[in-house]
Every structure is written in C-alpha cells, then in structure tokens.
Amino acid sequence: VSETTRERFAALGCEVTDSPGDCAGCGTIIFMVANDDQLRSAATSLLARLTAQSAPLVLVMSTVMPEAVTALAAQLSGHNARILDAPVSGGSVKARAGELSIMAGGEESTLDEARPLLDDLATSVFFCGPLGSGQTTKILNNLVGVTNLFLFSEAMRIAQSLNMDLGKLVTVMEASSGRNAGTRDWQARQALFAWNSASPQASATVVRVTQKDLHNALELAHRSATATPILDAVVAAHDATPPEAILERWSR
After folding, report:
1. Where are the beta strands (DSSP E) in the chain?
2. Side-chain half-sphere CA neighbours of 131 within 13 A
3. String of b and e for 55-67 (b: at least 16 CB within 10 Å)?
C-alpha cells in the first residue's frame, strides 16, 4: 500500500502493483503484511482473480492468528493451492542479511516445495506441525521476544543513567541469568535499536506490530484458559507506553 516502498522495489527491477489480485498469475504467492485484517483484505483481492488452473504455492509469512491461515486455506481449496504458514523471526537487520528464522506449519510436502525459497531468506527453517502451528509457535516466541526487547532496553537505559559500561554489563549478563538475544550479540541488538528508532514513523510501526503480537499471545492464553498475570501486566504496560518514550530509549 506504500507508494514509496513500491518505488524502492521498482528501482531494484521488480514488477510492482497496488493490487494483490495482480499476483494471481504467479506460481508462488507470499503474504507479508502486518495483521489479520491486512491478510484478509489482500486475500480478497487475490481470490477474485484466481482460477482452478492457478494452483499457486501460497506462503503466509505474516504473524497472524492461526485461524486466519486456516480460513484462507479453506478459501483457496477450490484453486488447487498448496498453503503453508511460515512466519519469520529476526527483525529488520536479520531480514536484510537473509538470516531469519522461519516457523512453518502445513503439509511436509508443501514445505519441501517451498524450502529452496525459504532457505534464501533464513538460516533456520523449523517444521512445527499442521497448518496454523507455525503461527502458534511464532506468537508464543514473540510473547517472550517482545517482552525481552523492551525490558532489555529499559535495563540498558538504567545502566546508562548510572554511567555503567554497557559492554561490560552485557558480557556479565551473557554469562549469567540475564542472558538473552541482546546479550548474545550486543552489536546486532544496537543495530536493531538504531533501525527501529531511525524515525518516529519507524518506531511507531514497530510498536504497533509488537502490540499486536502481545495481544495475540493474550488471546491464545484466554482460549487455553491459562492464567497469565505477568503477560497481562506486560500487555497493559506496553499499551500505556507512548511510542515517543520507546523511541527515546532505543535512540540512546
């Protein structure tokens, strides 16, 4: 939907369009959008143009609720499509390097068909089970990952305010119980913070996506009748924190 983004792809020699339906003739169709509503909207445009002879390989690489994928699969059933949910993890920095992690759900034969493409995007491709299980895995991963992303930045901000050497702190945490993705590769985490805080718009976009991720996790908890007081508090705190405050932490 972003004309600026389409122009960037066009400059790389890619064919671009402002209508998902124009992708109906492609052998492989990838959905990479921000939320369930965008997936449904793009799918509606696409389905209007598909035929029984289309027979595409469809990869849902967005992070959405599992039923959004199974609903799309039902809609595609008359088009001889093979569908896989394959959400990604790693953020913008690893995406640029082709070093994402992918969590796939669906038929193993469909994963085998998609694997050459997925291997270009990722260093790790995990088969998680039936269709939708990739999404469930990703949502639970993000429950921890998103919480850590924000909590770790708060820890670093406290240390900075106390004039601590952040590199030394990270080294200690990596060898201790505070070990996390940020301490495993501090330079990469700094690069991610810099990328996420490149502009107020970039920061706000990340915040909206992470809010969606945490609310998806909360929805899974409710469906499983699992009490999650810590998750409840994290979701409430994240919802109440202005994007500007998060931007200030990341930019430092």
Report:
1. 28-31, 57-60, 82-85, 88-89, 100-105, 122-129
2. 17
3. ebbbbbbbbbbbe
Residue pair 214/234 in contact by the 8 Å Cβ criterion:
yes
Supply 111's token pair: 């994963």
- Predicted confidence at residue 104, as pLDDT, reads 98
Average pLDDT per run of 10 along the chain, which is 252 residues long? 93 96 95 94 94 91 96 92 95 87 97 96 97 98 95 95 97 97 92 89 91 97 97 97 90 88
Encoded tokens for 133: 């299980």
Closest by CA to 206, choosing from 134, 164, 158, 146, is: 146
Amino acid letter for position 109 = S
Place of tokens 């996420």: 196
